[in-house]
């Protein structure tokens, strides 16, 4: 299958491109920067430019739209919003005009409001599933939600079938201890609902989403099977969210993001846990 992966030079896109290549896809990566050592053909383009997007997103069987600015911090909110919404619109529009029939969109659990809220979002119940209300407060979460809605509009008019994939913080053995490690000791860890997703499992999730043969627009939530914490989940929940009801027991370090729906629909089954990551020797 000929598949375009936007954002293929980034953290997630690289893992998606690798998973698709390993499964036999012909991948074309499109990104503003060339990949470091990627084994797939690459085209450099700014997908916020509709003309370039229309010229490049064509002649393929499927499009996986990963490119975006992945957080609202470190840049003007308006730039994050403008880039993410413009690229989503342009890539969806180009895919629709080219008659491409399968579309996968990298969304985020930030559409629920975590982790970038200004006014604290308290989960209405735990574990969080796809029935959790949408409630982004920040320009990034809002852009990811609008991206899903842009996909939905194209599906509604019959352009293609699509899967939108909501994910928590994406990690690799190389990023975890420096990125998540210090945050674990702070109250801010609850902003993430202590959730993460190994980038290799994310890659497999995108492959499964491409293989989904349903009609319409499927939205799924992925997560590692466990939290990034060293305290068991029910104890954490009693300590941080004592008033929040548990809809089912969570054993051990189990994630507070429920991925049963993703398992039932696309067959997602996370295999990697940070508990098996090798801690770099330079760290204490
Ligand atoms: N990193 C996370 O924890 C996380 C969590 C949930 C969802 N996501 C989503 O996953 C996707 C990838 O995130 P990431 O962490 O790999 O980010 P990243 O910054 O590592 O990769 C994003 C890639 O998109 C490219 N890009 C950005 N703007 C572009 C444009 N206008 N035209 C072409 N290419 C452009 C960048 O050059 C980069 O290579 C994003 O859609 C993000 O919202 C990320």
TrEMBL record:
The keyword NAD applies. Gene3D superfamilies: NAD(P)-binding Rossmann-like Domain. Pfam families: Epimerase (PF01370). Transmembrane segments: none annotated. Residues 4-169 form the NAD-dependent epimerase/dehydratase domain. InterPro entries: Epimerase_deHydtase, NAD(P)-bd_dom_sf. Keywords: NAD, Oxidoreductase. One of its GO terms (molecular function) is oxidoreductase activity. The keyword Transmembrane does not apply. Belongs to the NAD(P)-dependent epimerase/dehydratase family. This is NAD(P)-dependent oxidoreductase.
């Amino acid at each position: 299958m000929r598949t375009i992966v936007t954002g293929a030079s980034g953290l997630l896109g690289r893992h998606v491109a690798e998973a698709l290549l390993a499964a036999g896809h012909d991948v074309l990566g499109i990104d503003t920067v060339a990949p470091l050592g990627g084994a797939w053909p690459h085209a450099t383009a700014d997908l916020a430019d509709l003309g370039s997007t229309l010229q490049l997103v064509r002649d393929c069987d499927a499009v996986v739209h990963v490119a975006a600015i992945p957080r609202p911090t470190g840049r003007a909110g308006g730039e994050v919003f403008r880039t993410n919404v413009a690229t989503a619109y342009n890539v969806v529009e180009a895919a629709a005009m080219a008659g491409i029939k399968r579309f996968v969109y990298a969304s985020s659990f930030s559409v629920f409001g975590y982790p970038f809220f200004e006014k604290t979002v308290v989960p209405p119940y735990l574990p969080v599933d796809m029935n959790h209300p949408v409630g982004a407060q920040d320009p990034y979460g809002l852009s990811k939600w609008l991206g899903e809605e842009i996909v939905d509009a194209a599906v509604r008019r019959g352009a293609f079938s699509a899967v939108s994939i909501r994910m928590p913080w994406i990690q690799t053995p190389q990023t975890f201890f420096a990125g998540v490690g210090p945050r674990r000791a702070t109250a801010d860890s609850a902003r993430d609902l202590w959730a993460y997703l190994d980038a290799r499992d994310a890659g497999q999730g995108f492959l499964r989403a491409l293989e989904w043969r349903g009609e319409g627009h499927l939205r799924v939530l992925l997560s590692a099977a466990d939290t990034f914490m060293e305290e068991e989940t029910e104890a954490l929940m009693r300590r941080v969210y004592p008033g929040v009801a548990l809809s089912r027991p969570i054993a051990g370090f189990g994630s507070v993001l429920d991925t049963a729906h993703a398992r039932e629909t696309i067959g997602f089954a996370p295999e990697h846990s940070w508990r098996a990551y090798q801690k770099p020797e330079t760290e204490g």
